[in-house]
Amino acid sequence: MTLRAAGLPPHAEEQARELKPLTGIAAVIIDLDGTMLDTAPDFHVAINRMRADFEWAPLSLQTISSFVGKGSENLIRRVLSVDYADAKVELHFDAALAAYQRHYLSINGHYATLYPDVITGLQQMQEMGLRMACVTNKPVAFALPLMEATGLSRFFEVIYGGDSFSRKKPDPLPFLEVCRLFNLQPAQIVAIGDSSNDSEAGRAAGCKVLNVPYGYNHGQPIQNVDSDGIVPTLLCAANLISL
């Protein structure tokens, strides 16, 4: 696994310096795909291997990236909707999901790369004494080995996946469960992510919200998402946070 350039928008560092510090913070909730790791290449390989099983044409990395963020079930439905109307999507859904999961498990993390300053940002947050949770919509069976393999799991007190609770992001339930586990008020927690899923969940829970500009956000501009600011890296996010 290698570090890759984030492709940050122009003046991102300057814009981050203009943001107001977030005070009274005791914990962070951080997303995985599109925030700490660029996993789109993994999705691209697994999806197209699944499509080859059914003799469907491959999809581009850009198309698949725009489908990422709402969990595996939504991803497969979006992929199938390229070829089929809703009724046919459901007809093929179970077989397609099973094939995708089989292929994804075999290559999980093989093509994923850390975004710049992820490790240094997490290290700084840890040194500050912040409690740390990862909340992703990726199934736990995929998230845990991926975070172990990439050296991310050591920073987090808890890792919740899209199947950890009855509802996933953008529902606030996973964030509220972190609040309960940490015995903190939502206003003491900053949620950091790359999409409207993270922002909507954070806002509904009552947390502060920071977004990163380099992730997926369902193919939509992150600038249109409600948050307390856009930070170019997790290290910049750490610099904005004070206890």
UniProtKB/TrEMBL annotation:
In its UniProt record, a GO molecular function of this protein is: metal ion binding
- In which domain of life is the source organism classified? Bacteria
Q: What does this protein do?
A: Specifically catalyzes the dephosphorylation of 2-phosphoglycolate. Is involved in the dissimilation of the intracellular 2-phosphoglycolate formed during the DNA repair of 3'-phosphoglycolate ends, a major class of DNA lesions induced by oxidative stress.
Q: Identify the InterPro entries for this entry.
A: HAD-like_hydrolase_sf, HAD-like_sf, HAD-SF_hydro_IA, HAD_2, HAD_sf, PGP-like_dom2, PGPase_prok
Q: Which family does it belong to?
A: Belongs to the HAD-like hydrolase superfamily. CbbY/CbbZ/Gph/YieH family.
Organism, by scientific name, is Glaciimonas immobilis
Instruction: Provide the Gene Ontology terms for cellular component.
Output: cytosol
Q: Where is the active site?
A: D31 (nucleophile)
What protein does this entry describe? Phosphoglycolate phosphatase
* Catalytic reaction equation(s): 2-phosphoglycolate + H2O = glycolate + phosphate
Q: Which UniProt keywords apply?
A: Calvin cycle, Carbohydrate metabolism, Hydrolase, Magnesium, Metal-binding
Q: How does it assemble?
A: Homotrimer.
Q: Which cofactor does it need?
A: Mg(2+)
Which Pfam family, any one, appears in the UniProt record?
A: HAD_2
Give the binding site residues for Mg(2+): D31, D33, D194
Enzyme Commission number, as recorded: 3.1.3.18
What biological-process GO terms show up in the record? DNA repair; glycolate biosynthetic process; reductive pentose-phosphate cycle
Class of this enzyme: hydrolase
Which pathway, per its entry? Organic acid metabolism; glycolate biosynthesis; glycolate from 2-phosphoglycolate: step 1/1
